[in-house]
Structures are given as C-alpha cells and as structure tokens.
Structures
1.
Amino acid sequence: MRMTGGEAVVRSLAAHGVDTVFGIPGTHNLAIYDALRQTGGIRHILARHEQGAAFMADGYARATGKIGVCICTTGPAALNTLASLGTAYSDSSPVLCVASQIPAAGIGLDKGYLHECHDQLGSFAPVTKWRARADTVEAIPETMREAFAQMLNGRPQPTAVEIPCDTLDESGEISLPAAATLQRLAPDPGQIELAAELLRDTQRPVIWAGGGAVGSGASAELLQLAERLQAPVFTTVLGKGVLPDDHPLAAGNALLYPDAQAFLAECDLMLAVGTRFTEEETDRWALQLPDCLIHVDIDPEEIDRNYPSTAAVVGDARAALQQINARLQDVRRQPSGLATDIADLRQQIWRSCQSRAPEGVELVHTLRAALPREAVLVSDLTVAAYWCRRLIDTYEPRSFIYPWGFCTLGFGLPAAIGVKIARPERPVVVLCGDGGFMFNCQELAAAVQYNLPLVVLVFNDSAYGVLRPQQEVRYGAAHEVDVVNPDFMALASAFGVDGCRVDSIEQLGPAVANAIEADRTTLIELPGTLPWPMIDPSARMFEAEQ
C-alpha cells in the first residue's frame, strides 16, 4: 500500500491499538497531523507545552497499563519532553515519543537548519530504554514496531522514534508488519522451585509489593499468595493499591515508620515483588530486611543491586506469582492473630503521626472521606502529597499516581489530564503545591477544551515549601524560595474553570466533595503551610551537614 511517512506513523500506532495521542503540531511534523485528520480512529489531545503532552501520555499509561504516546516536532519541542520521559523512565511507565527531525540530508552537519539540534536522538538516551531514527518511509513501520516491542517486553520504560521531516512527507510502498505483542518473561523453573520451598518453610513471612506488581497486573495472584501464607503485605509508593488497604493483610506503605520496622524485625522472610529497593523506600538502604529475601523482578540488573537475595526470580511478576502459587497449592495457613497485629500496627502509626503533626493526619482523613472509593488521586511534589503517599488508603491498582523516582515538579496537572482521558468514568483529583502548579498550569486550557472535569487542589504557601524548612534547619536561613503567585481564583476564572478558596482543612472536605459532584474542572486553593511528615528518610533532609 502506498502512503506517506506521516500515514505510516499513524497506521503503525493504530495497528498497536493506540486510540489516543497527546501532542502539539509543528512545522516539521504536519504530515503526521494530516494523517491523523484523514485516517481517523485516533483521538488527539492538544497540549499547551510538550512537557505537558508527555506527562499526559505518562498519566494515561499509568492509569491504563497501555502505552501512552506523545507527538512533538523537532529541536526545542523534542527537548521539552525530556523531563517527562525521565519521570516515566524512573517509574517504569511505557511512553512513546514520536519526534520529527530536520531533513535527512542535513542531520549531523550543523548547517543551521530550522529547529536543528546537535544529536537530537542522543538527547533521548538518558531517559529512554530504546531510541531510533527511521530514515526512509519504508523503515517507519518496523521502527515503530520495535519501539512498541521494547516497551511491551522487559521493564516497561519509554522509547523514542525520530523521523526526518522530508521522510514524513515522502511516499513509499508500505507493508505493515504484525503488531508487537506482550511476551511475559517466564521465570526459570529452578528459581521458582527455590522460592516456593523457602516460602513453604517460613514461619513469619512478609510481602513487599512495588510498582512491578501493579504493572504486571499481579494483584489477584499477590492476594492469593498472601492469604495462602497469611503474610502481611506492605507496599512501596508505586505499589499502592495492589492490595486494597482495607484488606486485613494490608499493612500499607509504612515500612519506614519505626513501629513497622519493629514489626518487620520479627519476620523471618521477605518476598519482594517488583521493587528496586530505592533510596527513598529504604532510608538510604539502611532499612533492615529479614535475612531470607526472595526478590522477584523483571529486570535482572536489579537483582542484588541494593540488597543481596537468597532467591532471585527474574521474570514477570504475575507469571512468577502464578507459578509459586501452583507449587504451594497444599499450603493453607489458618488465620490467627495476624490481622489484629496489622490493625494494631496501623493504629500505632496513625497515633504517632497524630502526636507529631495533627494537621497532616487531619488532611489525610479529610481527603479520604471526601473521595469516592473509585477516585484516582494524582500527585505533584508537595507536602500534602507526601502525607498521602504514606498514609492515605488506596483500594485499587492504578488509582494512586505519583512521580516517585524522578520527583518532577509540574507532573500533577497534565498527568491528571491523561488519567481522566483514560478513565473518564472516575473522579480524578490532583494534589499540587503552588510552585509545582505554576510549572504547567497552562494545561488547564486543555482540560477546558476537552471538557475534562478535574479537581485541582493547590496548597498555597507562597513558596517552594519543601525547600524552605530544609534551608532553615541546615543553613539557618531560607533564601530564594518565596514566590509571588497570581490570584488563583482569578486565574481559574481566566481559564474558564470553577474556583474555590477554603480557609481550613475542615472546609476542604466539603469543597472536594462538591467539586466532584459538580462534574466540572474546579481549582480549590488552601492557603497556609502544612507540617512536614517527619519520618526517615525525609527527616534527614532537615539535618544539618556535619
């Protein structure tokens, strides 16, 4: 079939089941946009900044488990996606960036073409799993297929494809290859057998579930194994929701609390599923794990990187847990007092937080009471989100969206737009600080354009409030962290969204509930400063340098 390069891109996307893309047209990528117009079947969401477009694609991917796609033009537009792609890379989120390039004959010559960037493809290297250029129309389908194959197999991280603008406009005879498909990486049977035997012999096991368990869709298998072994389940930030937090075995995202560490010290084995043992999750790797560690992860590079494993199961988390469950079919431990112990632990943590910072605990209680069970909570980087990432109950996978590894300001609002596009039937609420909100507040225009009801909470302390207390404790004074903000209610009105300012956490709950009920985009501002959740390793940021 004869088609342009732009058509080859769009038909390749459609062949892989893509129904939504996010982006901004530019002089060099107009052939793609003409193909989107003529072909139909793929919805395009017009962002106001390429960083926003890539964050939207990331939010879409995290909410669905499908691949998010952003489209950008050459040079500055392509570079604008890098922080977003780095966020997706760090958190193992599959995002495809399709970027145009200058004419093929000029690449690498530094002649001064419009939008020319020295080694544009190389700029994607730190933030993508795989990247390639399609230099001919005929090469586009196979290059696109490989980009999808890379994301669908192994650790799901971003990929990038760049295509010269003249190639996009040219025509060629195209035969679309079969779409890439997910091939779940099967673990080695010997590794599964060793893990099963260790679990069979353990007396007090504990499970720590990370984003890999969510990403592989392993919730049912994880629950089955936890109930079979009567093992408490802790989660990482990215693992929240893999087990409903009101399940008797759900211990929450709590391992950094002293009470939880005392609980962990009594366990003789940990099964860690889909977690990398990162700095923030392990208190700079000071967290003491049981001597016997079974580590399940799809990436062999993560095995023994930070903690030595007794048994290493390299493979897809869902496949691994299915096989472990199959080998433990005869194990049926009876419930004992463990559920009471877990409930007591969670209450101890709440009481400890309440005694230190009652306003933070009140915030979490207030938000949880206001949010329907099926709501999706999206976070930017702000103290309010720090409280919620540890304490707020989450009931389903992919309903707590957080830029954890890269910790990128400006993620919240555009990611929430991607989530709402993906899950229109669910309330979507985003937590922002005033500083982070201003990074990408322009994307409110996209929410209005596509009639996307969001609830945007802006916690306004007129500062980069995460940094001010660090400076004061470590250096004795704050410097260059106070900001002058616009009138957020006037800003909401200018964008055509509802605005609501509340004066207390007590007023926040009804405001959130009313905004969800109104089914319109609403910006809710809460002025003031929230207390820092003082648990390790966050507390270390407030320690003076020795």
2.
Amino acid sequence: MATFLYRLGRFAFRRRHFVALFWVALLALAGVGAAGAPAAGNSSFSIPGTEAQKAFDLLEERFPGSSADGATARVVFKAPAGEKMTDADNKATVRDTVDTLAGGSEVARVTDPYQGGGVSRDGTIAYASVSYKVSGMELEETSREALEAAAEDARDSGLTVEIGGDALQAVPETGTAEIIGIGIAAVVLVITLGSLLAAGLPLLTAIIGVGIGVASITALASTLDLGSTTSILASMIGLAVGIDYALFVVSRYRAELAEGRGREEAAGRAVGTAGSAVVFAGLTVVIALVGLSVVNIPMLTKMGIAAAGTVAIAVLIALTLIPALLGYAGRRVRPAGEKSKLLGGGRAGKKAQRPNMGTRWASFVVRRPLAVLLLGVVGLGAAAVPAASLELGLPDDGSQPASTTQRRAYDLLSEGFGPGFNGPLVVVVDARNSDDPDAVFQQAGDDIKGLDNVVNVSPAQPNKAGDTATITVIPQSKPSSVTTENLVHDIRDTGAGIKADTDADVLVTGATAMNIDVSQKLNDALVPYLVLVVGLAFLLLIVVFRSILVPLKAALGFLLSVLAALGAVVAVYQWGWLSGLMGVEETGPIMSMMPIFMVGVVFGLAMDYEVFLVTRIREAYVHGEKPGQAVVTGFRYSARVVTAAAVIMIAVFSGFIGSSDSMVKMIGFGLAVAVLFDAFVVRMAIVPAVLALLGTKAWWLPKWLDRALPNVDVEGEGLRAHDGDGDKDEDRELVRV
C-alpha cells in the first residue's frame, strides 16, 4: 500500500498539469450537469415493511387520484375578539378565500369549513384544507404565492389567518454561520501550516471535492429521487473530511522536507505514509455511511451513499491533487518548523529546541495514565447521563419556531379543536375478503370509539368499489406524545381482533403513525447496524494496526464519545439547556434518525483520528522505540495536526447549526460535540493512557493471525528502500512550474 501510494504521489507531483486538468474538468462536467438538472425536491419518504407504509400504498391503489402524496395546507382563520367565524361577514371572507384557492392550477381540492365541519365549537376558529396534485417541494412558486396572497387578502378584512402544512415548505438554508466555520478553519490552517499558501491548499482541494460531490448530487437528484437535505449533509461531511485529509498530507510533506528530502520525494513519502492513513480513515467513514442502508429506509440510505461518495472524492483528491498542487507551490511551502516572516519565522529556531505541547502532554499522560483514564471516562459518563432520557420523534409544525406561520396555525388548531387535531390518524379498512364490508366498516368505527384518548371518529368513507374505507381518528393528546403512540398500538390491537373475526385488514397510517413506525424501525435497526459497522471497521483496524487490543480500545472509546454527544443533544434540544445560545426556539423529542445517523458518521470520524494518531505511534514502535516513548513520539509529530483537524471539523459542523432545517441544525450540533469529545477526550487522553497501561501488550497479535493478514504497511516501512531516490531532480522539476 505505502509503496503504491508513494509512486502515485510522485507521479501526481511530476504530472501535475495532467492531474490538475483532470480534476478541473471533472468539476466543470459535474457543474454543467447540475446546471441543467431540475431542482432537488423532497425525497419520497417511505418506510418499507411497516404498517403505516402498507396502508399508504393501499390508499394509492384503492383510491386512485386521491393525491395521497400531494402537498397539503391548512388555512386557519380566527375571528376578532367578540366575533365568531359564523358571522355573515367573516363567513363571506372565508368562502371568497376558498373560491380563490380552488382556482389554482395545481390544486386538487379545497374543503369548505362550513360544509366539512371545520368550525370550532365556540365558533371562533375555522380552517380550510387545501390538497395539491404534487408534493410540497415540487409546487410551483406561483402556487405558494397564490396561497400566501389569499391569506393576506383575508387578513385585510380583520381576521387572523395562518397557514400550516407542507405546502410552504422550502429548501433549507444553512445561513452565514457556515461561512464563519470555513473562516475559522482557514485561520487554524494558517496557524498550523505556517503560511497562507500552505493553508490555502486544503481549503481549495476541499472546496473542489465538495463542489464535485454536491454538483453530482444535484445533477442526479431528480433521477435518483434525492432529497433537498442530501446535498447539505454531503457538503457538511465532505468539507470537514476534505480539509482534514488534505491537512494530514500537507503536514507530512512539510515534515519530510524538514528531514532534508527533496520536494518530489517528500510528496511521494507524504502520500505513502499519511496517504495510507487517509485511505483507511476514509474507508471507515465510507463503511459507516454506506452501512446506513441496513435500516432499509430509502431516504437514509440515499443520504448515506451520497455522503460516502463525497468522502471517497475527498480521499482521491488528497492522494492526487494535493501532491500536484504542492508541485505548483514549489519552495513557497516551507519545511515544518520554518515559518514565513509574517507569522514570526524569526522565533522558529528557538521554539524548535523546546518540546512542543504534544510532547509535554503525552509525557504527562504516560506518567499518570490511570488518573487520566479515570478522569476521561468519568467525565464522558457524566455528559452521557441525559441520553437516558432520550425521546425520539419526527418534527411537525409544532416544532417550528413560534415566529413562523406554520407554528401559529398549529397553535390555533390546538386552541380550537384540541392538541390531537394536529395529528389525525388515518385508519384504512380493507374488507375485500369480507362478506359484508359495510358491517366491517361500522364495527371498526365502533370499536375505535371505545378506546381511551379518542376525541372523534369520523364515519367510514368507502371507495367506489365499496371494499375499502378510511376512518379519521382524532386523538386527545398531541401528535408527539407517548399517549398518542399508545393509541396507535391500541387501534392496531383492535384491528387484529377484527381480522380474526372478519378476515378484514385494519391498518393505521398518517403522519403521526408514520413517525411512530420510523422511530420503531430505527430503534430495531440500531443494534444490527452497530454490529455490522463496528465489526467491519474492527476487522479493518486489525489489518491496519496488526493488533487486537488497539481496535477494541478504539471501538469502546467511540461508544463513550457518541453516548456523551447524544447526552449533549438531549440536554440542548430536548431539555432546553443553552437553547438560546444554540438558536433552539422550540424543544421537543430528538429526531428519530438522529441517533443512528450520528452513530454512523461519528464512528467514521472517530476512526479518522484513531488512524492518524495511532499509526504515527505504531510507526515509532515498529522502528524500535519502547511503548511509552512511542506514544510520546507519535504525539510529538501528530498531536498538533490532529488538534487542528478536530478544531476545523468542529468549526465546519458548528456552521450548520445556523441552518433553517431542524434536522441539519441538530446533526451539525451533534457532530460538532461528538468530535470535541472524541478528539480531545478519547483520542488525546484516553488512548495514550490505555496504550501506556498496556505497554507491549497493546500490539499483541496471535502468530497465526499475523501470518493470515495482508501486510498493508501503513507505517511506510517499505519506503526505506527508496531512501535517497528522487532527491536530485527536484530543482529541475520546480523550474518547470
């Protein structure tokens, strides 16, 4: 591996014009494809194998033309104080609004509040339901403008008018905080690499990689049914790992220069050593992201594969474009320890004689490993305590900021019709195999009325064939409550009894039931996912480190950091701690897919730092140093760079906390905190403490397994044969730039 990558690095350095042209052409090609592609919408949300999805598919089959997957809007009206919605003037305003909305080209139907029971008991609140022929993200802007204009006209008459539903759903924005995150990354790179030019290389290559990845996703969005958040999450992860991978290669290049090697040789060795770590670190991230497909939720699978593709591009760019750009930069990228005058180069010589911070910290940990280990474990354990109170759910209008019209409409409906009105349950009764379908429909409605937590059960609405009917059930509790979840299970238990008596299927669907089924499916998939991903990565790390205990320690450390990060997410987004600082306007259940998505991504990123840090330690150990000294040596060369990489990742992820999308906001915070815990507590404290305690046992591997495993040579031992090669032709190559 190291020898192959060494040759690849030297090739890219020598043939830099060809390599640079290839990546620029690829970026241009992806850009052209994205420019001509239709805009990404919402990925069609489906959860195969669940009752809610089965009922939804049955509705599509038995009620053709019902636009079950179309966008919906609820236009909610509230009368001024002292008036009612049944007053003549207010009634006329509402009906004018309904007539106006019905004229839209994409509107399937509009229900009149006065004919469909859409007026509250006290007469102060009414609502009109609007159903569209297309999904919320596919709506033409003119349709949204017409909806908002109709509401504004009704407001002019003195009514309070708000709009709920997904018809006003827009593509999420990440905000200016993302730019601030990149700015922080740039500052960290300048401090770490000692020059503006060297710092610019990781940023440039990361932006190129993310540009290719996001443009490709945009170009394929319509064809592959990729959601609008897919490209945002891919850019989040791709940008972070792209900067980090490039940083490790550039840092190793400067270290090789400091040892007196020629520039082409240094580029080859940087790719052969740091590049090997990049390959295996990237593989762990890809495994974790692609492994999300085991959950069998298509949207999550597509998000994982798209992000994995962006990570793969980041790896390839670090191995090829970075050495090519180093060739262009020439002597303007200085050896490690030699900084430009702008950054205080005159003091470099004095500082070089003193042990750096990484050396001093590692020496301290090696002297007191047990105390450091206990402190790290107890600290992360304390941070993980809130995770025991984790409540899962999917966002609805009730989780929107109070300043939005969707949230205000949600609150008005709760006020006028009860909390459960915002989460109606749709019961689908399939009586095709029954002798008397009408009797089955009546029995189902009567049985559901007798359940606890039920406010209203609508009469059965059969299809044209008369063999299938829908029944709308309004719970007493709000959609995200445990009581509503229990009601869904009670209805399904009742349906099982009807099935036994009449051979009719009773299925529960609707947004609330979908959310419950998604949460259950994700919970059921978490353990198999962990076994698959951690198991594959464990085997991969055994090959990399040629050890049993080091990969085991890496996996256990990851579990600590991810539990602590989940605890932080619960504390902020569910409990409301520091919610004002984090821009959280509304607390509530944690998004259902958050734990499993964070587990996947954080595991991959955690293994990044494990690979980069421990390969440097193993390199020193393989070259003859004692275990404790090898830890200190590894930290001397890698702690500064790993710290910088972690700060960059935290900055990039934190930038997404400013997103308008609640899922992106929560994932950005969760990943930032997870990297903070994993890099600075697990990898920088617990890892060296454990290695110091284990000593030579850390690198133990059964002889039969040692013979069976392939030798990937991540430490670059095979490069010793190339000592001195290529050092004589560097100046000749540089003049060609």
3.
Amino acid sequence: MIQYIADIEQACIALKGLVSESEIGLDIETTGLDPILDSIRLVQIATPLKTYVIDMYHVPTSVLNPLLTGGPIKVIHNSKFDAGFFYQAPDGVMVEPIFDTMITDQVLHHRGYARSLKDLSKEYLDIDLDKEKQTSDWGVEHLSEAQIQYAAQDADVLLPLKHIQEEQAMELQITSVVNLENRLVPAICWMERSGVSLDRHLWDELVKSAEAKAVQLKEKLNLSVAEHTSSGLDLFGNAIVSVNWDSPAQVKKLLSDLGVKVENTRHSTLEANRGKHPVVALLLDYRGAAKKVSTYGTDWKKHVHPTSRRIHANWVQIGSATGRMSCKNPNMQNLPREAAYRNCFRAAPNCVLIKADYEQIELRLAAEIAPDPRMKKAFYEGRDLHSVTASYLLGKSTTETVTDSQRQMAKAVNFGLIFGMGARGLSSYAQNNFRVQMDENEAAEIRRRYFEAYSGIKNWHELQSSKLETRTILGRHRILEGERDYTNRLNSPIQGSAADGLKLALINLWETRHQVNAYPVLTVHDEIVIETSKELAGKAAKWLKRCMEDGMREFLREVPVAVDITTKESWG
C-alpha cells in the first residue's frame, strides 16, 4: 500500500507513528546529483505494511529530523548519497543509525566495487525493478502516478533485502564488519561534505613549472640522443631527433639502437635499466614530469565547487577487496607526495590542517598477526624496525649505527618480504621503489637472512599459503583461489586490518565530534587530516591522536600503536 503525502500535517501524523518502528526502508529522489546545488524532491519511507511517499516541495526537511536522527534503523541503498542531501539541507541532520544494503553486499562478497539496487533485488529477492523512470524529470511541480509508483518500489525492497543480508552475514561470521561499515557512513559523508580548499594560484604555478620541466627534459633527451647517435644539430643548435618520446614502440627501438635491450618500456623495466645509458634516466624523469602535466594539470581546478569554493571528492568507502577506501573526482589519495603538490591544499583563513599518520602500521600488524616475537619486541621497545632489520641483515650488533642507505635497504626488504616477494621480485621492487640496487643473488641471500631473523613471519607465510579464505583481525573475509593469489593471502589480512583500524578511527571522530570544533577533510590509507581554527589546534590534535590510537588498539593488542602528528597551514 502506497500513501502519497503533500501536506505538513499529514506528514507529521505519519512520522509520529514511524518513529516507533524498529526499522524502515528509506530512499529519496532528487532534482540532481549535487547536494549543494540540488534538492530532495521525494522521500520514500517503507514499513512492512505501507510505503509513504512524501513530496518535499510541500513538506520542509526539518519535519523529518526526529525520524532521521536516532529512532529506527534506516535501511538505505548507497546511503552516503541520501545522507549527503539530508545533511546539506536547510536545518539538516545526519541520518543514523544506518544499514546500507550496497555496502553490506560489498562486505558479504568482498567486492571492491558497488552494485545497483536493481542487481541486488534480482539476486537476493528475484525481483526485477523497473528503472525506466530513474532519469525522468523530478523537478517538475506535479509528478506523475508512474513516478510515484517507481519511487515507492525502490523503498519497498529494502527491508526484505536487509533481512537476507543479515542472515548471510551471521553465517559468514562477519556481522562485526557489517556493523563497522554501517557506522562509518556518517563519518564519510561528514568528510565529503566538509571538503578541502585548493590554492588555485599555487596550483597554476605548479602546472606551469611541470610543463616547463617536461619541455626542458625533452630537449635534454633529444640532445643526449644526438650525442650518442648519428643525429646532428640544426643551424640553431637544436638536436635533430625524429623519435616520439611518448611512443613506447619508438622508444623501445631507440633504446635497442643505443644498446639497451628491453622487452617493454614500462616504468619498472626502465628503472631496472636506469644505469645502462644516460637516456634511460632522462626518459624516466621526462615521463614523471609529463604525467604530472597530464594528470595534475589545470583541469584539476574544475573540481573546485562554485558555491563552497572547496573540493568535495567522492570518497569510496570500500574501494578494494581488502576493504581499503579509495577516492575519485578527484583522486586525493593518488597525489604526488612532494610537498609542492600537497602545499596547494590549505586550511581556511585563521585555520590549520592537522595531519596524523600511523607509523609503520602494516609492519606492526604483521608482527601481531603472524605473530613474530622479535618484531613485536622491537616495537614494544620503541625501536625503529627498519634500523633493527638492517642490523640483522648486515650482521651488526644492535648498538652499532645504521646508515641512511642501509636503513633504506632494510625498508625495501621489510615492505617487500612481509607480502611474500621472491628474490627476483625483491630485487626489482627495491630498485623501482627505493632506488636500492641488489641483484637476484644478493636478494636471495637477504631473503634467507630476513626469514631467519623473523621466523614468525616465515611460519605465518607457510600457514597462509594453503588457505582459501583470509580474515582480518576484525573478521573481514576474502575468498582466494589459485597460486597467483599467494600475495593476496598475505596482503589481505594485514592491509584489511589497517583499513578496519583507520575506519574505526574515523567513526571515533564522528561519534565524539561534540568534543572539539574540527572536522576531517582527507584520508590516505594510514593518514587522516582534519581542519580546525588555530585557537583549537592543540585540543584538536590531542582529539585526533586519541581517536586514531583508540581505533587501531582494537586490533593491535600486543604491539603498541604509534601516531605521528603535524600541524600546518597546508597539507604539505
């Protein structure tokens, strides 16, 4: 049964009865996709016996607030979208508690991508939802009967869908993970609606600099080729070179002519051959500059919202099978780590950005999950694990000084070997990511010494190698098959546990937000950035640190949590 409501008094009567429900299906139709510029047109509320379709052109959003905050569980598909509109509305509030059928489906099937309500309705309920009216004009004054019927059907399927998903979660023993993800939705919505400020002048200067550097490096490449081949110079001293540096086929042929035989021109391949000819290093530098121009060019400014003057990126709550978050439009997690780029993201006037990141969190989790007594002891004593590892690999006593280059080598080994790299992979990984040279034989010997030192890690690798299902400390699961999934058998419990801990930290921020006037603006895997006034910086920093420590302590019981805090006017 459907009841269409376009009157405040009728809405109040209906909502008075709904507040006592234990759960309701909730859906909205909007005039567009932007919570700042667009508005809610219809709100659909489903109970087991009746579905209400409320016309928000005639009912203020504030009338719904007692139902939206507290009260029954709101069962929503893609709840961040709905919550974003309610939160942005005049006198708006955050919707909670929430049960998100889209997010729960991802948890059940360990998917790094989301599925539509139509797909879920067919799979779980064998119901074919008609989505013909989804793209109709919801901004018209008088909606058709077909539009009202369409709106109601989406809300109708939510409660039965939730019940099936809850049963499956219990069978898989992942209810705690489902609860974590549903508690997280308001925090993600809060961060997304807060946004972050981009200094467009600094960004423009950075783009110009990257463009000039790319041109300069291309000229150096041409001159270098001219010096080492039969190519010459023109009357103006410019190199006469016909190669297209953006063409892999032409670059491969040129390198072959210069005596550098490569199977392909991928970054890892070129890094492995960096020292074989000056052109290779120049080519890598040129590609880096060219990528910055194409990926982080002037187009980035289109993401600055015309009203808020801030970037409101789309934070994807489950962006990979491990449970990690991702980001798009734009991807704030993939920015170069160079200070120049991060400096472009700045606090509002008289405010600061406070950045907190977990120190060596994946290694700490590996030490606990394995468990490895030697690694746990190093963390418990507050020692730098990379320096400790360097001492073991080089046969040094723990009192001897470890050089920066030796620590860098150990850093490559720690991060490479906890996820199961062989000698060849370690050799390539060390060169490509840390500029550490080691041939395959050296890598094999280092690998032997590493697992001799950390026998707990070795034993855990052997145990994991035969498992078809992995679990994080919280219980997030992932089904794996085949030998090629060996790395994922090691990666998923560690990376997934790190993701769970960070998510709980964000939940802690949201659920204790009344303690300080501050809000999250960014997160990158092991890092959270908040914004607050300069006057509250000290209080906010303590709050952030406490929330992050408490979140990860749920999973690190025998290894201490360490959080590093910095306060600046920019992210850099």
4.
Amino acid sequence: MFHISRWKRPTMASGIALSVLALSAAVMPQAIAAGKTITAVMHSDLRVTDPGLTTAYITRDHGYMVYDTLVATDSNFKIQPQMAEWKISDDKLTYTFTLRDGLKWHDGKPVTAEDCVASLKRWGKNDGMGQKLMDFTASITAADDKTIVLKLKEPYGLVLESLGKPSSLVPFMMPKRLAETEPGKAIAEQIGSGPFKFLPAEFQPGVKAAYEKNKDYVPRNEPASWTAGGKVVKVDRVEWLTMPDAQTAVNALQSGDIDFMENPSFDLLQVLEGNKDIKIETLNKFGFQTLGRMNFLHPPFDNVKVRRAAFLAMSQKPVLDALVGNPKYYKICGAIFICDTPLATDVGSETLVKGNGMAEAKKALAESGYDGTPIVIMAPGDVVTLKAQPIVAAQLLREAGFKVDVQATDWQTVVTRRASQKPPKEGGWNMFFTNWVGADVANPVVNVSIGGRGTKGGWFGWAEDAKVEQLRDAFARASTAEEQKKIAADLQKHAYEQAIYIPLGQYFAPSAWRTSLSGVLDGPATPVFWNIEKK
C-alpha cells in the first residue's frame, strides 16, 4: 500500500501563496519566538491517530512521538533493548522480557507487563509480521508487573526482528485499557509512554497537530541510533503544520516561519539548495521501492507466460527518470529486498536493471497464447510519486505487443478498486503501481508484496504460489544470517521467474531544515524529533 503523498506542483499565484502562508502562520504559538518549538511541514496531513489501525506513514510518525517499543533497530540492523531487556532460553522457545525502571504512561500510571501483553496481542492481529509471529506463539503472559513471557510452539528466527520492526505496523506499547479496544475500532485516547505527549486540544486535522515534551520520560543511556537508544527531547514542543501547496511551504522554510520540511518536491530542491540557511539531506538512506503489481485472478495475467513477458518488457531507468528525474535521488536496483541491505542480491534482475529484455519479451508474448486482451492499468493523477509509473509501463507493454487500457483515476479510487476481485470488465483491474518504504520490504516476512497466499489472506493481486510460502516459512525458521540470505536469494529468483511483482527501482526523498536545527537523525522510519536541538 502506498502511504506517502508528495506536495503537488505549485498552481497558485505568489500572492495567493503568501496569503495561505500568512493564514498558516496565524496558528503558530508564541513559543516559536522563544526557540523551543520545532515547526514542521510533514509529508501528509495527520488524520488517523491510532497507529494500530493503518500502515499510513504519517500515523507511524505520530506513533513514534507518543509511544515506545519493547525493543528497537539500530543503524547496524541490530535489535537493541528499548523499554525492556530480554533473555532467551537454551531451547529457543521462551523469551523473557523485563521492563526497565521509570516507565510511566502519560496519565502518570506505571507501565506494566499486562499492558504490554495486551499491546502485543493487538498488534499481532493487525500486522502481517505480527501475524506470522503469532502463528509460532504458544502464549504471551505477564509473570509479574515487570516480566513478559513469550513462549513459542517451535523455534522462530524472527522474534526480536518482529518486535523491533521500525516501520508500519510498529508494535507500539499502550495501556491495557486501550489495547483491548475491539478490533477495527480506534482507541479513545492517545496515551503512550514515549518522549512526547500529544495535545488533543490543539489537534486540528487539516491545520495542525501539536506535541509537548514528556518531562517524565526517562531516556536510555545509549546514544540515539535509528529508532533505538536514548530518545532525549531537547525542545519544549513540536508542531506539524499542514501546507498542501509546495511553494507555500518552501517559502515558509526560507523565511524561517517553519523549521523543517519533510519532503520538498523534486522540482523545488534547486531553490533550497542555493540557500545557505537550509540543509538538505536524505534521512532514509534506503528510500522507497516503487513497484508494479499484476492481478493473478483474471486473464491475461493468470497465465505465467504472459506475466513473464510483461516482466521482461519492464525497465527501471525510464520509470525512475520520469518519476524523479535527477539520478542523485534514485537508484536502479534489482534487489527485491532493497539494495545495500543484508539480503540484497541481483539474481534474476538483469532485464529490469539493464533494460535489455524487450526482444525476449516480444518473443515470450508471441509464444504465450496471448489473445489481445487489453491490460487495464489504473493510473492515479493526483499523487506526484505515482503518476509516472503507469504511463511509462503502458508504453513499454505496448512496445512488447500488449494492448493497454490506461484508466485515469485518483489514488483513493485505486486504493478502493484494487481490493476488488471482479474481472476488469466489471470494475476490476489488471495492473497497478505503488511504493513501499525500504523497511517494509526488507525481508521475506515483512514484505507483503512477495506473498503467495492467493485469496486466503494474500495481498492485492492475489498471487497463489506454494513455493513462495514454503520459502517464506523457511526464512522465518532460519537461525543464521547465512541461511536467511540463501533463502532470500532463492525466493527472489523464483519470484522473478513467476513475476510475483515487479520492483521498478528505489528513490530517495530528501528532507530540508533550517541550520538552526542540529542533531536530526537518519533512519528507515524518519523523521523523528528527539535528539534535535534548536538555536
């Protein structure tokens, strides 16, 4: 699922833009003048505040402000203690977590093991990686107020990686009374134990979300590293302001009316690069994977030979050139599980990365029995990072010999329509495109696009492939990094042969902030606002 929407290209005259800026500035508190409030324009407006209900990245970012996790991932991909230390039994079947001292909920009550057990159970119902962990789990109980005991049915190699996953859905801890909210219903309050407190009285969807420093929070002693280590808050407040017009937000950043802009549009970066008071940096070094997904239920992509022909026709460079333009901010990458990570491999990816598969695609299509059935591609026009892929893909497919029906729509319609299993002639589809942050595709268990469960819990497109599921289970059971790497390579080879999905490269979304800020952290789930100082 795509979670990040970029600012649209400016369409307003400068006078209107300045009026919007003045209106936005009117909601800023006087605390900014004191230099203890960070004011940020995020990639999206915050609407859903329950981090257990949606994989939307803005809700994940909100979660990191308010909540904390039992364990976390550092910049060496190592799982580190966060709220709890742990011990593992010799038979690898029992994990015992002990909560550290000083943990309090924002309402002043102590964090207990029962709270955490309820939180883990809620997360385990909603998250794909959590569901897989629960398949291997015999029980999760509270032995006493500070001790959580997780017992497995059989050894499982991804217990800590599941509990420390940095991106959606993150296993955030919350009070038991909130964690026991019935499935599908939003929690009633935003009460966590994290470094910031949410200010519901100031929350105006479409305008502003505000947070204040949690003075009762006791950070860990270790240096901050990705989502692990000491979450030391060095300002009094953080405010997220909504500015949907890209030019308005850039003007506000340059004038000092805001401090931080998560995702300036690529075509406005040059404006900011010339300002000595602005720093530009890509915080998420693994970026986003953009990808194409075919529908396995209906012709012609129910035929693996046709899918394979479509796969061979695809090329990453023209997609990335149209999507991003500047090679500084994209990477041609044949690794399903993201380049520059422990599971990266180029096996099976030659035609994608070299763009040399068209002749083979034409031959494969001619031999596949393809009868000219039009390929219905959903093409959203309202999201900058999803407009280019359908157009470029359609051109490549036509060159290979496919008939293509590009249907213009908006992203929310795609989100709804891709869940339909009806034939394309009845409102269904054959192909759509989306983006995932790197952390959400970095291994075979967390990456839902690689699944082979078909209509029984599979991702949109409903690929059914027993070998894929066997390899995913083998990866989950693997006990060494070497074994995991081999299984991941075998899975990638098979997935490309079957055209389970088509990775179309990685792109990087730089953030920009005023040089009055220091200590901005990088990581796979950014931005985070602890560790930042403001002059």
